[in-house]
Here is the input.
Amino acid sequence: MTGRPTPGTPPHTPVGASVSAPVSAVVLDIEGTTGSADHVHTVLFPYARKRIAGWLTAHRGEPRWTEILDGVRTETGTPDLDEAGAVEALHAWADADVKAAPLKALQGEIWAAGYADGSLHGHVYDDVPEALTRWRAAGIARHIYSSGSVAAQRDWFAHSNHGDLTGLIDGYFDLTTAGPKRAPDSYRAISRTLAVPPGRTLFLSDVRDELDAAAAAGWQTAAVRRPDDPRGRSVAGHPVHGDLTGLHHLPPAPPPPAA
Here is the structure.
């Protein structure tokens, strides 16, 4: 992955460096951070791709079908695109792992059926439930921000290999509700929604460009690079952790003064 260091930050921050400033909210990425990227690419993506055309056929004329088709037309700049053309575009995006909102929405619809019938589960690393539990006990809000749709994120945690974890998560953000993950304005939008000062929000991700964007919006950041990550554990400008255990004891922000 590539990216530019945030102005004013050193080119390298020590691996495992702790967070010292108060934290009111933690926002977490999914793929590579809280769950296995391999699970996404070898299980979920192929599962959805095989079912794109069938889903559109089965739901033809329904409001959700119309919404996805209109989204593909907007993204491709072809207002008269038919269903066959939409399938072609969706397949191309899936093959290239394009973060297109219509594709993410359709993947979420397809995965939801797989979760419901037991064909799928979401992968969550063993250290994640304890971290979420500790942050909840400390009064720190916990949110997810992923390119996958909010519905897909919720299903991932509701049907995880650790059971239903949705009770440990306060909310979810995606490309539609926040914006692209490599754009600082997306993090500013999340700050407005959470009503938490940027400097008291911690973002955890495995992608440097995303971390740079969050830092540019004034957030605290920490990279999570799992031991099997081929990119290694050096992320310029951000402290790096191999899992969430070193972040269990974040310094909570003081409560607001009484009115």
